[in-house]
Amino acid sequence: MAYIKFNKSELVNLEYSLKRELVAGSGSGAYGNTTICMCNTRKYHALLAVPIYNFDGGRYVLLSSVDETLSVAGKDFHLGIHAYGDIYDPRGHKYIRDFEMDPSPVITYEVGGIVLKKSLLFTPDSNQILIKYAFVEAPAGTVMSLSPFLAFRRTHVLTHKNSEADLSFKEVANGVAYRMYEGFPYLNLQFSEAFEYTHNPMWYLGITYSDEYRRGFDCKEDLMVPGSFVFNVKKGTTIVMSASTNEVNPKGIKSRFTRVLSSTIPTDSYENLLLAAAKSMVWDVQGSKQIYAGYSWLKPGLLRETIIALPGIALYGLGDRKLFEEILDNLIRDNEERLFHRTTQIEAPLLLTDTLQQYIDFGADARRLWGKYGYVLKNILKSYLPGRREEVAMHPNGLLWAQKDGAALTWMNTYIAGRPVNERPGYQVEVNTMWYNAVCFAIEMEDKYGSDDAFVRIWTPIRNNIENNFKQVFWSDELGHLADFCGPEGMNREMRPNQLYAVSLDYSPLDEMSQAAVMKVIRRELVTSRGIRTLSPKDRRYKGVYEGNQNMRDEASYNGCTRPFLLGAYAKACYKLFGHSSTSFISKLIEGFEEDINIHGVGTFSEIYDGDPPHSPHGAISSALTVAEIIRVKYMIEKNREI
């Protein structure tokens, strides 16, 4: 039985259905993304967007959508839906009877005595989407016509009618192929059944993406419909269409659909939806396994996002240690400059320590792990010594000072008019907590499993120096918590979640009484049912709703919006300080995400939520950070129940 369903009254209500999005990935870097009523509302929406490595490796929309027309008894019923300004034409959503994930999206249309089930399925190892049309009921003489809408453009930009477009086609086995511009791959549309094709290229002008309009971006584009495919159908007819950058054998299309569907993770429970979401975040980028940061506009292989999300995705979710190390090895190989020399993500290299600590807690052999990755962590630490990096360096007090005019050097990295919203120059509390954790871990591992006595001898005084100065620099008796950062203008008094890491990480420079005080104020001012606020509502800069133009949204992003991924660190801190008694409260914290499983990204979880109730979701509709840390929290809950 399907866990996610929508009924007719929900689907025909565009105010409701246009806000709920389907998203699926192939594992090869291709994806499909649209709304549950099949109307595209973003420039990122597509039935098939693929990476093109001979360009820049970015994703490009090839197939924007496919419109179906059913003809019976002299009447045509158009199942597609597009917006032209405020006008929707056609309005095929009114024929949708229901929608369910079982395990892939299945949309049932009912009109003119016809009952049609349309199923969408991405193949796991190629740039291919399969669309199955199954006619449960169909009067004699029923005809179905399919019209593909082509874009052939980068996901971040829109396209318009132009004379450079190649409007021709070539025949392939039981199908046709298009390539609108030189350098693109061919889009092969092939079918399991016979058809008649009419080539009649036509631009559809002014298709409008309402979500881009709402966000203040360019929102209109022109799409090319090159022709139509016509099928004679009857009750029991099943047609499967393959849209792919590779030509396939049409005789195997139906069996491939069945085979892929049978190997797809069932969507019959919340837990399986989490696993499916985790699996969709693992991409094979030209033979290199990477974590995709989030659908549909983020990138794979990002340093910070991968370091944080990797344990939740690969270990707690998929239970695959080999995958964990493969992705980590690829990340280290691709990020030597950032890890060892310079980066605007100054805390990311230090967070690698926490990733490895989680791996050891999961059961990895500490000796083997230090033998493999010890040199990486030691070189990361050395890169923060004076004179090694321009953007950050250790001061005589043992703490890290990071400052670069006009640059946001931490994870709070939004910009308005080229200037950071939260520059945070100086000693950042989370950076120095991560620094301390990394130094302590490296000393312990090298002392136990290494042979570099000089490293231990040199770094032990540095660790002691951090211990002696951390609280003196960051703690405020007046506030009862840690400063967010201490910069050229002194102690910053904003109440933010960055101090959470001073409790959650394995090694803390704070005594237990101070850690408990930090957790008390975080729970009182920052904890919500959809993550941890990025700023206390008591602050004058607090913005509790992510709305308005781009500048307004960027201002709110780290000044009030919640970040669900911080729940992983929060849960770890609770268990570390308060033990099993935390389980009930932590369980309630993540229960709300199950309620949101059919909101925004259907079957997955969003990047950010409003700081104010009802905590509406925003940002990337499927975030690797959110998915990974929800899985991590559930893992911690179950682990503590077993003890």
UniProtKB/TrEMBL annotation:
Domain Glycogen debranching enzyme C-terminal: 285-632
Single annotated GO MF: amylo-alpha-1,6-glucosidase activity
GO biological process, one term: glycogen catabolic process
Domain of life: Bacteria
Protein name per UniProt: Glycogen debranching enzyme N-terminal domain-containing protein
All residue ranges annotated as the Glycogen debranching enzyme bacterial and archaeal type N-terminal domain in the record: 20-239
Gene3D superfamilies in alphabetical order: 1.50.10.10
